[in-house]
Design a protein that fits this description.
The chain has 16 helices and 13 strands. With 372 residues, it is α/β, with parallel strands linked by helices. The protein has two domains: 187 residues, Glycogen Phosphorylase B (Rossmann fold), CATH 3.40.50.2000; 149 residues, Glycogen Phosphorylase B (Rossmann fold). Strand 5, helix 5 and strand 6 form a beta-alpha-beta unit. Helix 4 runs parallel beside helix 5.
Length: 372
Amino acid sequence: MKTILYVVGARPNFVKAAPVIQALAGDQDIRQVIVHTGQHYDPALSDEVLHDLGFPLPDRFLGVGSGTHAEQTGKTLIAVERALIDDRPDLVVVSGDVNATLAAALAAAKLCIPIAHIESGLRSRDWSMPEEINRVLTDRLCEILFTHSPEARDNLTLEGIEATRIHHVGNTMIDSLRRFEGPARMAEAWRSVGVEPGTFVLVTLHRPSNVDDDERLAAIVSALAELARSVPVVFPIHPRTAARLEASGGDERLAGAGIQCLGPLGYLDFLSLELAAGAVLTDSGGIQEETSALGIACYTLRANTERPVTLTSGTNRLLGDDPTSIAAIRPSPAGPPARIPLWDGHAGERAATVLAAAVSELGTGARLSVPT
């Protein structure tokens, strides 16, 4: 029996990896091992998301937690290396672009274990983004690169990645969305918030470029307060953002403006609100994709995006770096879902087929080099 080991660390990793794990669950020749680094450890961003997705109970929880980029990456690298030495997998699968992604890829590469990367080839070409560093370096280390949009393959080809390593399978995040869209609609999370479908703006902001600078964060708070004068605003607040708002007094300003400030939400509750929103303001990459797949207007508070297909074929619009543009957002009726090739709910199955074929060619532990 061959072993595939998945390293997941943050909410987006769970959503992207779940369809692949599910697709391989019935393969009697493959043992799947899940290592949760604990990069996201808030219950709503970890336990509740895993529960909502029907995600298998992780075999290992590393408890890495928060810290600087160096601390988080370093602790994950050490802990994942130990897990790889103990479990001796034939293949390691990572997803996305968080610190756990790069750390796991480094650990596997140093032990000569083949690596597959879900969501390869995305590029913002903005090296001030930690995620851009993570995704570029991870792609260089991988034998199997799963892309979800045509420009991702082009990016990899321009960087010299051989065509045989690239597999265009589609967007596994959309697999999860389609699987749980019905239950999320039925949940009607908007009722408990006191808003009506199609009337409110849903907000999610967490990137350091938006929340770590006190002056910029204050400008965003002011713009959100102005927006709330015209339309209902619902803001599930990421723990990182919550800490910054509390330190600056921004949380009191938001509440005083009538904004519905919520704690972090599980996957189903957030998706339920997203489905009912008249517009979404975000700096998240995955939400740009989800809103496009749902036909919901998305406004991204960034100067660039590594997901240009959401601009050309989806519903996404870049607001740039000026927070004052937030105040002009207005809810609108949902339009038709974006028709992006292979965003069809079956990307996980296609990725699983590639992984099963690849791992069958490997001898158990044959490529694992353990230092003495």
